[in-house]
Amino acid sequence: MAGLAVAVVAVSTSAILVDVSDAPSLVKAVWRVVFMTALVAPFAVRERDQFESISGTDWVLVTVSGVLLAGHFAAWFASIDYTSIAASTTLVQTQPAFVAVGAWLLLDERVTARVAGGIVVAIAGSVLLSAGGLLGGATAGPNPSLGNALAVLGAASAAGYVLAGRSVRQRLSLAPYVFVVYGVCAATLVAVAVWQGTPLAGYAAHEWVLFLGMAVGPGLFGHTVINWALKYVESSVVSVSLLGEPVGSAVLALVLLAEVPGPFTVVGGAVILVGIAVTATGRNT
Known about the structure:
By secondary structure, the protein is mainly α. It has one domain. 78% of the residues lie in helices and 0% in strands. The longest helix has 28 residues, at 144-171.
């Protein structure tokens, strides 16, 4: 549980680091994942014998996971440019609801009444939170509707990443798994940047510090530690613990950036958190 607490604190810094960087959102995503891949590479090399045991089907699943993770980063990083940090980080945490629906549709897992109720509550909270941007409010962002939609897309992509890679993680240890997924994710983001003609170099020194910070903090000590914790802590506990991210991000945004969430963001975010908590805790009931 101590490791999980560290991970939640680490991922809470992600939105702040992304927001204070002036680089294009795609560039932030590219270098975060490139540095994440480089950081886990030495650990993956120590277990390189595991790569030989990966089947063709698992390679396909890992590749899909990496592409979906790239979609998650690209959509969520872009969302922060258009909506508030509180709204973005709360909406992107609707991932457990998408996972529950995806598991029902793709993996034939039964959805209980509690899970269904939690999903409905979470969606209602999302509508309420988005209404704040449409009606106006403190530090809502230049285009809250677009930003909120991108955050939800980021949540759906993250859910797909979890669903595609869940079975592979059971057969492959942490370092080799995240190295391949991060590597595919990085290659996908670089390809998109090249296709769009987005320059990947020529940024100020402080931007490179921020890119590395995104990789070390929310990357290595955040999501990688979360993947490690899944081996020792029930998935429902991990999911509920991650609900601390939007709370932590909103607090940091208030303290560091003076970004005061409006009433719709506060109430809608609270409703979303209740819905996700019900969804996550109801999956084994």
